[in-house]
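assembly run, all chains below
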Amino acid sequence: MSLELRSVRKSYGEVEVLHGVDLTGRDGEVLAVVGANGAGKSTLIRIFAGAHEMSSGEMLIDGEPVRLRSPHDAHERGIRTVYQELSIVPGLSVTENLLMGQFPKRKTGLIDWPAAHRRAKELLDAAGFGAIEPRTIAGRLTIARQQMVEIAKALAGEVRVLVLDEPSAVLAGSDLDALFELIRRLKARGVLVVYVSHRLAEVMELADSIVVIKDGAIIETTEPSRTSEDELIRLMAGRKLEQIYPERRASPGEARLTVTDLSRRGEFSDISFELRAGEIVGLFGLVGSGRSEMARCVFGAEPASSGSGAFRSPAEAISHGLAFVTEDRKRTGLIGGMSVLDNIALATMRASTRGPLIDMSGRKERVAGMIDLLSIQPARCATMPVASLSGGNQQKAVLAKWLLAEPRVLILDEPTRGVDMATRVDIYRMIDALAREGLAVLLISSDLTEVLGATDRVLVMREGRLAGELPSEGTTEDEVLAHAIGVAA
Amino acid sequence: MSVNALPKISRELLTTVAFTALIVLLIAVAAITTENFLTQTNLTNLLKQMVTTGLLAYGMLVVILTGGIDLSVGSVVAFSGILTAGMVSSLPIPAAMAIGVASGIGFGLVNGMLVARFGLAPFVVTLASLTTIRGLAFVYSEVPIAPEDPAFFTLGSAMAGPIPVSTIIMFAVFLVGGVFLTRTPAGRSIIAIGGNAETVRLAGINVRRHIVLAYTIAGLCAGLAGVILASRVGIAQPSVGVAFELDAIAACVIGGASLAGGKGSVRATFGGVLVLVLINNLLNLYGVQSFWQQVLKGLIIIAVILAQRTNRVRA
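ok done. output:
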């Protein structure tokens, strides 16, 4: 089956995020879509999945124009999507997750459980994930295994197009091999696989054709044999690497944060590291490696089981000069319904009072200064609900909130996820400038290029432990990944 | 995703205008179609009747803003009233009244602790305290208590010129309460918690303490309402205040507060109180049977909320 997009545009409110995308995928092909964070990949995926309707343009399946009005529509036409964010219901068994709503029934109308488990087993076997036991509660599986259940679920019924969004972000080793094997088998069966990833090495290995998306448009359609990883990076970023990341030459000062043997049961153990004034330290790990959990624990959001260096509460951490830009700005960084002003002032509210009342004019001035400093757009957004800003500007608002607190240690967890390239460059410049003034920065990222490009040295976590420390200068992405997966010598 | 700033302001304005128009309309209808609405007695009565619903509505708003609910306020009204009336025989009246209000604060504190410390659902906690506190009111005195000291009636019946003192107290609560919610760190934190508690916690703000504070404020308002009501009526009954929490919730919701928390306005809640009290008064003047009053009030609440909703969708 062929799938074609013709001049597809998509706007959210007044912001257009896809500016006329043309794309063709044929059956039995692996079509890789690569692009930087915020380039429009997720929007494209949602259009394939029927989750969002395109604002204009056409989608053709086998040459016939179709309109996908809902995920159900897409499903009916054999288009299956596996998102990066898992949709597994953790409290239910693998079988229930796989068959969700389509259980084999007995004559009495009750669910035929033995048949259901058999059916689940068949689905898992067919996907090549036979190692997973259907009766297990899904939440007890590793994230990688949950991802595999999700893929097996997508493959139930007649599949003609499989869209995989960053499937390798949580998979490693033999699980990753199983996924590649599955993709090759699907390909042989004539399925079109749309593979979205920013791990270029895999893309080069798997893809038949590659499209590069940048700032909401396809800027290049190519094949692995005609391109290189370096060229793809340059295309994705629209500039050379050295123009994205500021030149770093750190001369670290005194220790600002010392973490020793820190553990939290079930999440990570024996983590020791030091952050010094003026340095930017990267922290890399696959999803499930415990990197964010560790950061939350240091900041006092969750209690530690043992070790030292973590604070007892966020309030204590903040009073010691820590600031924490969390991974998920919607859930833990912002209050969507409140104004930009209220959001930016949140962490410094107690410090900006006159008597019992908030110093409204002083607060407004300081926030306006931050909006200006970080060039948050639109410039007069202070009274607008923060949720109405673009992703990049929302991220800047979170950053502004913490910079107002004048931190001595800044922890950034995936600060550039869903953020456009121009804003990313702004953010890198900002943290570089702050580090030069003596700020200690911990930059957690799953973007290998970023975690090497924007930092002085990189810590790598694997399965809850520190698996290595590498200098950013002269280390390759493969080396970092090797430590994260556990194949490093 | 993108909401323009301009339509939002005009939408707020539109809501305010629509609200004011509704209140003016109710007053006009009442003034034209009934003989008694504009009489001194009725207006004074109206101002006095407003006090209970008003105080309870402000306290309820504070709790609703956190994303919670307090179903126990009606029972607190009964308990604080009867406790005060019972104490009058052995204590000076101001002290007895202070104890009545303090009992409300105490109940609020317990509600808040159960919600915040143990993470119990506000609906369940306050449903349990609704029945517990009601029971306690009857345990304290199965029969109504009517103090004889005329000073007991002062709080509920004294006038400052044309306006009852109790109404002035209620206005003061709304005024101070409005400043509290918009201008103090604690008030802003309470609203922010309803918007996204985790974000607030990570900003170094003690979420639990603010939730306890919110329920305590609701308890304080309910305690005060109970004491004023007993003083106005002149007799404290353990059975008073049944379903008062519903009027308080209705006032907040008519005022546009979101039961999910994080959204609500003091001014609009006061508007909600006015609408409810006017409807009650009007139906009384028309001589509508009280059961029909309940039916009509329910329908009117749904109509107002639906009107707000379509307004929001269109804008």
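The longest strand of chain B covers residues 159-160.

The domain at 35-314 of chain B is CATH 1.10.3470 (ABC transporter involved in vitamin B12 uptake, BtuC).

not gonna interpret more than that til we talk
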